[in-house]
Each structure stands twice: as C-alpha cells, then as structure tokens.
Design brief:
Blueprint (H helix, E strand, L loop, with lengths): L1 H17 L6 E4 L1 H17 L6 E2 L1 H17 L6 E2 L7 E2 L1 H4 L11 E11 L5 H9 L2 H7 L6 E10 L10 E13 L1
Amino acid sequence: MGGRLAAVAVAALVVLALAPAGAATITDRNTLERRTVDRINTVRRNHGLRPLRVVGALTEAADRHARSMARASYFRHELYTPSRSRDWMPFGTWIRWYWPGPSYRSWSAGENLAWGAPRITARQTVRRWMASPGHRANILQPRWRNVAVAAVHVENPRGYYGSWDDVTIVVAEFGRRSR
C-alpha cells in the first residue's frame, strides 16, 4: 500500500512538473449564475414580462461556451471547435447541439456575453447588458420562456484576456421552443 501511494505521489509530481508554467485555472461561479438569473428576472418583472425558467439544455450550452472562451481565451458568440472541420462554429449552428432538443417544431435562441476583471457582479453584468441595445433586446424579449447562465473565473488567463491576472466570464442563453 505504501509503495502504491508513493508511486501515485511521484506521478502527481511529474504531471505538475510537466504542466505549462502559468496555465490558466478555471473555476465555476455558481452564486454569480443564480444571482444573474435573478437580476434578469427582476428586470423582466419591472418591464411587465414573465420571469424566465432555467432549463438544463440551455445550461449545458452556456457552460460549454463559457468554458470554451476561458480555455481558448476568446470573447465572441462563435464557439471554438478546432477538432471539427471548421475552427469556429456560428452561434446558430452550435446552439442546435443543445437547443431545442428532440421533437420540437419551433424554437429560437439568443445569447448575451459579458466579462470583467478581476470579477463582475450580477448587477454589473445585467446593467451592462441593459445599456447595449442587442443585449437589452434579449433580456426584454417577451417570447423567451427559458434562460441559463454560466459564469467562470479564470486565473492567469492568456490571449484575449492576457492583460489581466484574472477575469470572470458570464454567458446567458435565452430560448423558446414549442412542440
């Protein structure tokens, strides 16, 4: 047992030694996600609109996009897909991998993105979106019924976020579907 434990410890040290210096560390921001959904729904109620319901399919899409932007260090609605025939998938293509799901005859989806360094609050995120006509339109779209928000914090980012020691990325997916 002691030999096996020592081997595992040595293997872990080797992995750490081979890891690139300063690699980005990505952590979820679940509280920020919940608070951002709450802020979106508060704004909608204040404008006479029904609140949106969080659904799993959009949550998976939001999480995939937030993590992709964190790992590959970009900020755009396209999804980075280097293992496919094209490196970048347009929003209208990749969202179909998640939404609407099987057997829906009609659907639509929209997306809002935000980031802040080192952090961004739910209030700041929604305030920025409400100051942008396209993002505001998504929040106040009466047809939307569903929403999902994913938020990740990135320590030691590179590329697009490389000027900062750490950043927080927020993705909101909006949707409607009918059978």
